[in-house]
């Protein structure tokens, strides 16, 4: 199974999300090869919109095996009087996955390993699978993590994707347990995907820019 995760970040409103989903549905229906991969469990797609769009995308997106929704973050409060927070309890009927510890949150929101650990444990309590982003081998990997997305900071949104050998050498430093699912993120696009798709060491990809347009997202999916 290969995993392809779309991280739209804070880029879409209702109109642009609906446009994305309509185009995605049209392209998917026409792409028998990708549908077959989804049917055969060789590909899983996880779309991570901002909170305000999750319910809308869930209603409108093509219903197919192995197309799932995720959030880009979650509150470290379980639920209750926490104005502005969106908790795992709030999200549990909408998503199966949640990105946690993205380097943008570590940088701009000052998220620490401790906060990220709390988020992971709450997600687990609500049976939502955390996708933990790490920048390198120095970031803590909390108990119970299966999905690890290695995202070197210099490669995110810069066009400077990391090459396969370097990714695998980082993987060996980050992961000791073979049961973990190792994902790479950082300037993946339809062109460099050809090289990545040859490696069985990388089990999935977390896409930022390339996920914002359904055409490039599907072009990548068709190469996996
Ligand atoms: P990018 O973003 O694909 O635009 O580099 C990846 C990410 O931030 O998860």
Give a brief description:
The chain has 224 residues and is an alpha/beta fold.
Which structural class do the helices and strands define?
Answer: alpha/beta
Low-confidence stretches: none
- The rounded Rg comes to 16 Å
- In whole angstroms, how far apart are the ends? 10 Å
Beta-strand percentage range: 15-25%
| Count of separate structural domains | 1
- The CATH architecture can be named as Alpha-Beta Barrel
CATH topology (fold) name: TIM Barrel
Which cofactors or ions or other ligands sit in this model?
Answer: 2-phosphoglycolic acid
Describe this protein with a few key phrases.
single chain, 224 residues, alpha/beta, TIM Barrel, eight-stranded parallel β-barrel, binds 2-phosphoglycolic acid
